[in-house]
Write a structure and sequence with these properties.
The complex is a heterodimer of chains A (212) and B (321). By secondary structure, chain A is an alpha/beta fold. Helix content of chain A is 35%, strand content 23%. Chain A folds into two domains: 7-111, Glutaredoxin (3-Layer(aba) Sandwich), CATH 3.40.30; 120-210, Glutaredoxin (3-Layer(aba) Sandwich), CATH 3.40.30.10. Chain A is built from eight helices and eight strands. The longest helix of chain A is centred in the C-terminal third of the chain and has 14 residues, at 146-159. Chain B folds into two domains: 20-130 and 254-319, FAD/NAD(P)-binding domain, CATH 3.50.50; 147-250, 3-Layer(bba) Sandwich (FAD/NAD(P)-binding domain). In chain B, strands 1, 2, 3, 4, 5, 6 and 17 form a seven-stranded mixed beta sheet that branches. Classes of the chains: A alpha/beta (212), B alpha/beta (321). Chain A binds chain B through residues 4-6, 9, 12-13, 16, 19, 37, 40, 95, 97-99, 101-102, 105-106, 109, 117, 119, 140-146, 148, 170-172, 177, 181-185, 187, 195, 197, 201, and chain B through 1-10, 14, 52, 54, 58-59, 75, 95, 113-115, 143-150, 152-159, 225-226, 246-247.
Chain lengths: 212, 321
């Protein structure tokens, strides 16, 4: 198969991956049937992993035990595990290509333990979240504002074990997008009930979460 | 589904708040970046603060009127701009907005979202503009249930569907051309005659799945849980008509982002910042450039040029103060 990432992007990523602190594992779930973008996603993850010693990929079937462990119901989906093999609620459903490469790469860097700046007041509010929170961020690959929203969902997830943040590529998962009436992206759905539209600041995410 | 990877690097912007800057450009669009380029070349201690690096360029699928580039995407053009200023080491702060500006004893204090305060001798406000709303019944009800303001972002969600474009300027016609590639049927509705460039209108006319209603005022967006269509008035015949559609892209121009300086400088009735030929506002040391100003013709190249003028004027101001 022809490479998905051209030389220029590969070089950019190699440089950015110098920032990786510890190892990160990408655990990919695919399905043999009805999965148009499984092969491309597998290709992307493999190519990305080849650009740094600290990155690796594991692959399982959508119907595996592992899929249940991470509450995976769609294919392709993947989660990131930190150096200790722990899942911190960072999930991608569909291929993070186009603009979404940005949220993917940021998640890898942050999951590796690289420092990210967050004001103390927000950090405190995130750490106070004491009930299960699921944040879905619907995106399209041509949307320049979407990776910002995905990054915030993932950041909150990484800072609190009660939170799962997931990117959902709206075209791949058309039925799910229709269910949540997605006609503009990024669309953020919290615990399948509250919604935000647009790339909102972390404060707006927290206001919604705190209202649960 | 196009995979077109566009990686824009990591945002690692730490700003030095201990120094006194000469020139701070607020805005990551053509005006802000070109101003930063000119200021830095004059030897000014320069900083550019971009809430959204690239600004409105990111919402533009194709730019074909920027001299020197026959055709490229708005995003690619913004990448060229950013590369250029990075090549001469202009300091950038990204994803940060300025909350307030104060002028104290000839020094501007800019308070950032995160509470940090920057000090500078001169400031450029190049904060651009945001999409204007139609202001009709149903627009808010169906926001994100059919009503959309970013064609490049949301067009993929309307594959095989019927879509309305509101507006008759370049962005509306470009949106129609882009959306028509994905949607089943596109209907453009505009309250007067086209303001768009003829080349774009010709390109649009060549598409077989676009219907056009000029001199037609949109009265209402209707629907149930989602929008189902619009009601409009043909102003020539004075007859009402409906168009069924799953979505509407509103491309009727922009509102200047002048809130930051509304109590500091003079604005016109459209909330645009009044500037003179040197991009000076009514407050000495504070300049404005690009779509936030009262300059006619909101064009990338106009904003770019205004950024240059503002930086040169700021340099002159610093040398004489």
């Amino acid at each position: 198969m022809e490479k998905l990432l051209n030389k220029e992007v590969q070089d950019q990523l190699r440089e950015v991956f110098n920032e990786l602190k510890e190892n990160v594992t990408m655990v990919l779930f695919t399905s043999e049937k009805d999965c148009e973008s499984c092969e491309a996603t597998q290709g992307l993850l493999t190519e990305v992993a080849e650009l740094s010693d600290k990155l690796s990929v594991k692959q399982h079937d959508l119907n595996s035990e592992e899929a249940k462990q991470y509450d995976i119901t769609l294919a392709p989906s993947f989660v990131l595990l930190n150096a200790k093999g722990e899942y911190q609620g960072v999930k991608f459903n569909g291929i993070p290509a186009g603009h979404e490469i940005n949220s993917f790469i940021s998640a890898l860097i942050e999951m590796s333990g690289a420092e990210s700046e967050i004001p103390a007041e927000l950090l405190e509010r995130i750490q106070k979240i004491d009930k299960p929170v699921n944040i879905k961020v619907f995106v399209t690959l041509s949307c320049p504002h979407c990776p910002g929203a995905v990054q915030k969902a993932h950041k909150i997830a990484m800072l609190n074990k009660n939170v799962v943040g997931e990117m959902i590529e709206a075209q791949t998962f058309y039925d799910l997008s229709t269910k949540f009436n997605v006609s503009g992206v990024p669309k953020i759905i919290i615990n399948d009930s509250l919604e935000l539209v647009g790339n909102q600041p972390i404060e707006r995410f927290l206001e919604q979460i705190e209202s649960l | 589904m196009s995979l077109n990877f566009s990686f824009s690097g990591l945002n690692k912007s730490k700003v030095d708040t201990s120094i006194l800057y000469d020139f701070v450009a607020i805005g990551g669009g053509p005006a802000g970046y070109n101003a930063a380029l000119y200021a830095k070349r004059k030897g000014l201690k320069t900083l550019v603060i971009a809430k959204k690096p690239g600004g409105q360029l990111l919402n533009t699928s194709s730019v074909d009127n920027y001299l020197g580039f026959v055709e490229l995407s708005g995003e690619a053009l913004s990448e060229h701009f950013i590369e250029h200023i990075q090549s001469i080491d202009v300091k950038e702060v990204n994803d940060q907005a300025i909350e307030s500006i104060q002028k104290i004893n000839e020094i501007f204090e800019l308070t950032m979202e995160n509470g940090d305060v920057l000090k500078t001798k001169t400031v450029l406000v190049a904060t651009g503009s945001n999409p204007r709303k139609l202001g009709v019944k149903g627009e808010d009800t169906f926001a994100n249930a059919g009503v959309a303001y970013c064609a490049i972002c949301d067009a993929p969600l309307f594959k095989g569907k019927d879509v309305i474009i509101a507006g008759g300027g370049n962005s509306a016609v470009e949106a129609a051309i882009d959306v028509a590639k994905i949607a089943k049927q596109v209907t453009l509705v505009h309250r007067s005659q086209f303001r768009a460039d003829q080349v774009l209108i010709d390109k649009m006319m060549a598409q077989s799945n676009i219907t056009i209603h000029l001199e037609s005022q949109i009265l209402e967006i209707y629907g149930d849980v989602k929008m189902r269509g619009i009601k409009a008035l043909n102003k020539k015949t004075n007859e009402e008509f409906s168009v069924e559609a799953d979505g509407i892209f509103i491309e009727i121009g922009n509102i200047p982002n002048s809130g930051l300086v509304k109590d500091l400088v003079e604005l016109n009735a459209n909330q645009e910042v009044l500037v003179n030929r040197k991009q000076e506002t009514s407050l000495p040391g504070l300049y404005a450039a690009g779509d936030v100003t009262d300059t006619p013709y909101k064009q990338i190249i106009v904003a770019t040029a205004e950024g240059a003028k503002a930086a040169l004027a700021a340099n002159e101001y610093i040398n004489t103060h």
